[in-house]
Write a structure and sequence with these properties.
binds 5'-O-[hydroxy(phenylacetyl)phosphoryl]adenosine, 8-stranded mixed sheet, 24% strand, 2 domains, Rossmann fold, alpha/beta, 31% helix, GMP Synthetase, Chain A, domain 3, 434 residues
């Protein structure tokens, strides 16, 4: 269902006019009020009056993660601090955290993006949404929460973890929609089977999954295990958390809420803008954000924008399911591979679970990369019999070779031995960087 027909199905030229008006406002405001942006604009010699059309956005400088880190905590605030009502942050596991500060109006826009997302997955005010994204500084929990409030649904703010209780809540409160990372959805299904709970008999119809890379193969697996429709949803702390883009019932790419957040695709090596249909790095500008607005944020996420409109009736452009992040790209002996490609190949192989980890090392003598794919064998297939395990290993190796073009060392591991995640799963251990 379409939550906001006026905005989501807007005539394209009116949408472009709205985006331009918002961009112009933003640029003028930031140049006048945020010293960080004034310096950046002056460095590239661009003034607000140079932005005469939407296309001129490409004249503006990019903002990067290190810019955000260097201005921690409040260097990008574009409004008096007294107007800030909520603060979120990235986990900061790889350095200084990145801060996003919201005014009441920003929260309303975020809720709008998330209400559109939930509505597209079929949620209505009569439904119960069980939210198993983590609550706290992470944007997943609160983002879905604000959106479900706006939608008028009943929310179970379960947060992540406590899996047995999650399943009890789902059953007792007859949740219709649930939200969490795809890897947690898989883990929950596994736990339910252990506890003898048939999740297919629950009242669930759909789930909104995101916050980490996942594949079409994984979608099918989740849909089958739970007997639901599984929707891909996208967002990031720096821009707004979940709600930036979402799938509709066509499940053919994610509609970008582009009246609020403007997407571009650029060549990650040159920074040149790419036309719709071409794959590159997603760059996002917040068009209405008051607290910590961002111009041309380099997400490092790789995707393309569909050149043709969706048949659902929405006019907002769609981004393709994410291929991966520029910083997650594994270059193994010169071949480029994203972890989600490995996952997609893996889910088609019988006898193994889609629980995996890739360990990459560099041989100290040959200086060549060595990648080991650790895969869990299904409980009913696991045995001490070497022959059976050997043929499974060979099968995985040849599927990887033919689908990805790389030779991986395959290590079969015991069922349930790879650590489960209730949030974002860690799929890659790259020892080359250490
Ligand atoms: O993960 C926001 C979010 C929460 C999105 C809940 C969807 C659902 P961060 O922790 O800042 O924010 O991580 C953002 O996660 O740049 C992508 O690399 C990745 N990501 C998010 N959604 C998807 C997705 C949240 N659907 C980073 N597919 C982004 C693949 C995703 N990767």
């Amino acid at each position: 269902m379409i939550w906001n027909i006026e905005k989501e199905c807007m005539n394209v030229s009116s949408l472009r006019a709205l985006q331009f008006a918002r961009l112009k406002n933003l640029v003028e405001h930031l140049y006048a009020t945020v010293p960080f942006y004034k310096v950046k604009f002056d460095e590239v010699g661009v003034k607000p009056h140079d932005i005469k059309s939407l296309k001129d956005i490409s004249k503006l400088p990019f903002t990067t993660k290190s810019d955000l880190r260097e201005t921690y905590p409040y260097g990008l605030l574009a409004i008096p601090q007294s107007k800030i009502v909520e603060i979120h942050m990235s986990s900061g596991t790889t350095g200084t955290p990145v801060v996003a500060a919201y005014t009441a109006k920003d929260l309303d826009d975020w809720a709008e993006g998330m209400a559109r997302t939930l509505s597209a997955a079929g949620a209505t005010r009569n439904d119960t949404v069980q939210n198993a994204y983590g609550y706290g500084l992470f944007t997943g929990g609160m983002g879905v929460h604000h959106g479900a409030r706006k939608l008028g649904a009943s929310i179970i703010p379960a947060s992540s973890g406590n899996t047995q209780k999650q399943l009890t809540l789902m059953r007792d409160f007859k949740a219709n929609i649930f939200t969490c990372t795809p890897s947690y959805a898989m883990y929950m299904a596994e736990k339910a089977a252990e506890l003898g709970i048939d999740v297919k008999k629950l009242a669930l119809r759909a789930g909104c999954f995101g916050a980490e890379p996942w594949s079409e193969g994984m979608r099918k697996k989740i849909e089958e295990s739970w007997n639901i429709k599984a929707y891909d949803i996208y967002g990031l702390t720096e821009i707004t958390g979940p709600g930036s883009a979402f799938e509709c019932s066509e499940q053919e790419g994610m509609h970008f809420n582009e009246d609020l957040w403007y997407p571009e695709i650029i060549n990650p090596d040159t920074g040149e803008p790419l036309p719709d249909g071409e794959k590159g790095e997603l760059v996002i500008t917040t068009l209405t954000k008051e607290g910590t607005p961002i111009i041309r944020y380099r997400t490092r996420d790789i995707t393309y924008i569909y050149p043709e409109p969706c048949c659902c009736g929405r006019t907002t452009r769609r981004i393709h399911r994410l291929f991966g992040r520029t910083d997650d790209l594994l270059i193994i002996r010169g071949v480029n591979v994203f972890p989600s490609q490995i996952e997609n190949a893996l889910v088609g192989i019988s006898g193994v679970e889609p629980n995996y980890q890739i360990v990459v090392d560099r041989d100290p003598h040959t200086h060549l990369d060595v990648a080991e794919l650790q895969v869990e064998v299904c409980p009913d297939q696991f045995s001490d019999e070497t022959k059976g395990m050997e043929s499974l290993r060979n099968n995985i190796s040849s599927v990887m070779k033919s689908k990805l073009g790389i030779l991986l060392k395959i290590k079969l591991v015991e069922p349930k031995s790879i650590e489960r995640s209730t949030g974002k799963a860690k799929r890659v251990i790259d020892n080359r960087k250490i």
